[in-house]
Automatic annotation (TrEMBL):
Domain of life (superkingdom): Eukaryota
GO MF entries: N-acetylglucosamine 6-O-sulfotransferase activity
Pfam families, per the entry: Sulfotransfer_3 (PF13469)
GO annotation (BP), single: N-acetylglucosamine metabolic process
Protein name: Carbohydrate sulfotransferase 3-like
């Protein structure tokens, strides 16, 4: 079973983060309980599915991605904000990743701790970019409409803005005077709420069982329970 994981997609707001994680599952999952009896010898399907994690910045998408990455030996990790490349990832058109092919050798050599666990020993990451506010929305629409044909699962990660905003402030994501800061903070809160409504209502008929909302706080309190639910969903 192969999962392509796209992560950190600010789909109503103005920041677009995309992460692609290609995970080749073993025929047996690692035990997730003390004696291993609950997961030992459990078979998984030998097919391909895609996972897209939708979230705002500083909402815990890296931790959520690790839940998938750490449970599997073979991982292909690509952090790429370009919308066209994101689409190519989800249709498994890896031949168009010329940049990845060029730099893959150096990444394989330097990131030995991670690359030893990967299928082709390739780990590539690129910093995020900013797109116009409406740019990401059309991409999400297209992904959702094709979610069934691409066997895609959408995980929407939501975090309390009272924790998101201080993290953004530490990274100096906000600029300007006090009035401007208040407006930016208000925009973050409104965007998080808009994303929830967008994902759960506007496109729910399109995706049905392909969409799952995950609250960051619940994931921290019940990490194993959340991980098990996510594996079942994927």
């Amino acid at each position: 079973m192969t999962i392509l994981l796209g992560c950190g997609f600010y789909f109503v707001g103005y920041i677009l983060h995309t992460v692609a994680l290609n995970v080749n599952f073993n025929t047996k999952l690692k035990p997730n309980c003390s004696d291993g009896s609950c997961m030992r010898n459990r078979k998984v399907k030998n097919d391909t599915s895609n996972i897209l994690i939708l979230t705002s910045g500083r909402a815990g998408s890296s931790f959520l991605g690790e839940i998938f990455k750490r449970n599997h030996k073979k991982t292909r990790y690509v952090f790429e904000p370009l919308r066209k490349i994101l689409q190519n990832v989800f249709i498994a058109d890896h031949l168009k990743f010329k940049a990845i092919n060029i730099i893959s050798e150096s990444f394989t050599y330097r990131n030995t701790r991670i690359s030893d666990q990967t299928d082709q020993n390739v780990v590539v990451k690129e910093l995020s970019m900013r797109f116009p506010q409406n740019g990401s929305s059309s991409v999400l629409e297209n992904l959702m409409r094709n979610s069934k044909s691409w066997n895609m699962r959408i995980i929407h990660l939501v975090r309390d803005p009272r924790h998101v905003i201080p993290s953004m402030q530490r990274l100096r994501w906000f600029a300007g005077n006090a009035t401007s800061l208040e407006q930016q903070i208000r925009s973050v809160c409104e965007t998080i709420w808009s994303n929830i409504k967008y994902g759960r209502k506007r496109n729910y008929a399109l995706i049905k069982d392909h969409y799952k909302l995950v609250v960051f706080r619940n994931m921290m309190i019940h990490p194993y329970k959340t991980a098990e639910a996510l594996y079942e969903f994927a």
